[in-house]
Amino acid sequence: MKNLVILGGGYGGMRILHRLLPNQLPADVNITLVDKNPYHCLKTEYYALAAGTISDHHIRVTFPEHPNLHYKYGEVTSVDLDNKQILFQDGEPLLYDELVIGLGCEDKYHNVPGAEEHSCSIQTIDQSRKASQLLNNLPAGATVGIVGAGLSGVELASELRESRTDLKVKLFDRGSIILSAFPERLSRYVQSWFEENGVDIINGANVTKVEENTIYNHDEPVHCDAIVWTAGIQPSRIVRELPVEKDVQGRVVLSLHHHLPQDENVFVVGDCASLPHAPSAQLAEAQAEQIVQVLTARWKNEPLPESFPPFKLKGILGSLGKKHGFGLVGERALTGRVARLLKSGILWMYKYHNG
């Protein structure tokens, strides 16, 4: 029996499972999914969990079941490429014949002193739970500082503003206008929403240091009763430590067929892979579809695809609380209730089709 090991039950890992099961998996191949949690987590909704507007079970999806699918739950410490094994904090190593690494990302602190020690994160479900406890236990009138005004920071700030109107929310943004990578119409819409709803946007921010309850912006102290870091991501530590070629963001450089150039049995999917788009759930799923094509062709002793079509991403959607949103669908900019309803509908469809 061959053993396909999938490290990480995120969006890429789940898409591979759902495409292989129940009918695409040969009888002589076992799959072992390795994850810290016994369920798939909807990472795109961690901001709402942290803000206290949804409960834990709303962002958990049950893993699929199959006679040839097995699970191992634990903390991975490293991947031994030479000996084809996964090492764990506790327990015996796990051997693989083929491996898909989909371990996701971690916060990137940009060497800002104290940032990791004195801020909380929403990168994992455990971290989001801790952030929720901290934020929702704050007294009335407390100040929350959110460092980083990308999609996660914007959604967290808006959701927190609606769930805790008694709090003061400060959003630190490096740009001259929020979400500067988006079309100007969307940026101005989001900036106006925050201004109308009493969120303090600090544009042109440069966080130089973080201490307990204090953010230093251009070396000037700003008191915050709680600090959340959403200012960038990097591949997981395990991937950063792999002795393989990486791009300038630290993501693994891959072959046409999404495996290591020097090892055709090791694939990398999602946030850890060097791809021509910014990391996203959509991108991980699109890449997973192509990895499945490669695996099934190999198992059938068929020629591998000579090329793949470019990834077709449908767009990006963000929420501003429960009633408003923004996004790009194709080339079309959407704002207001339509964008928010569309995002809610996509989330419902994902949960429906995945368990």
How would you characterize this protein structure?
The protein is globular, with a radius of gyration of 21 Å. The protein has helices at 11-20, 46-51, 115-118, 125-136, 151-163, 184-196, 237-240, 281-299, 337-353, and strands spanning 2-7, 29-35, 40-41, 60-61, 69-73, 76-80, 85-88, 94-95, 98-101, 105-107, 143-147, 168-172, 200-202, 207-211, 214-217, 220-223, 226-229, 233-235, 259-260, 263-268, 315-320, 324-329, 332-336. The longest helix has 19 residues, at 281-299. It has two domains: 2-36 and 74-105 and 235-299, FAD/NAD(P)-binding domain (3-Layer(bba) Sandwich), CATH 3.50.50.60; 109-231, FAD/NAD(P)-binding domain, CATH 3.50.50.60. With 355 residues, it is an alpha/beta fold. Helix 1 runs parallel beside helix 8 (281-299). The model has no long low-confidence stretch (mean pLDDT 95). Its cofactor is FAD. Belongs to the NADH dehydrogenase family. This is NAD(P)/FAD-dependent oxidoreductase.
CATH superfamily of the largest domain: FAD/NAD(P)-binding domain
The profile of the biggest β sheet is:
6 strands, mixed
What is the terminal separation in angstroms? Answer: 28 Å
Q: Globular, elongated, flat, extended or rod-shaped: what is the shape?
A: globular
Organism: Metabacillus lacus
Family: Belongs to the NADH dehydrogenase family.
Keywords: FAD, Flavoprotein, Oxidoreductase
Protein name: NAD(P)/FAD-dependent oxidoreductase
